[in-house]
Specification:
alpha/beta, 2,3-Dihydroxybiphenyl 1,2-Dioxygenase, domain 1, 4-stranded mixed β-sheet, 8 strands, about 25% helix, globular
């Protein structure tokens, strides 16, 4: 079996969040979705589970973080070009996301960040390894 990663996020409104992530380029897997949780697919091995607070708390062993005011994690998605970085970010902004800072350009890597409705922060980046500084 291929190794996979499932990122579970607590969200206020799974349907509204599903629409946001769809705008970013994720697709929904209805087989693993219901009113309390939406399975969003980025690739064959990367999934984001958008879970209502109630459903998320049923799995949690600690109190939930307030991700609107505190950072609980950074999630990064690599793409194939700067054009794709900009396209995804612009779609996310049109869908209601917030860009907390301007694009960051490290020479070999360009990155933009987007926050969803619940404050979960995503970094969309393109990395050109041919421009990676030599050690």
């Amino acid at each position: 079996m291929t190794k996979q990663i499932f990122i579970n996020l607590a969200v206020k409104d799974p349907k509204k969040s599903m629409d946001f992530y769809t705008a970013m380029g994720f697709s929904n897997n209805p087989k693993f979705s219901d009113d309390e949780g939406k399975c969003m697919v980025w690739s064959d091995s990367i999934y984001v589970m958008l879970l209502s607070y109630k459903k998320f708390e049923s799995f949690a062993t600690k109190p939930l973080a307030d991700t609107k005011s505190k950072l609980a994690g950074l999630f990064s998605l690599s793409v194939n070009s700067l054009k794709e970085v900009n396209s995804i970010t612009e779609k996310a902004l049109k869908a209601g996301g917030v860009e907390p800072h301007e694009i960051r350009d490290y020479g070999f890597m360009q990155q933009r960040s987007i926050e969803d409705f619940d404050g979960h922060t995503w970094e969309i980046f393109y990395m050109d390894m041919s421009k990676m500084p030599a050690e």
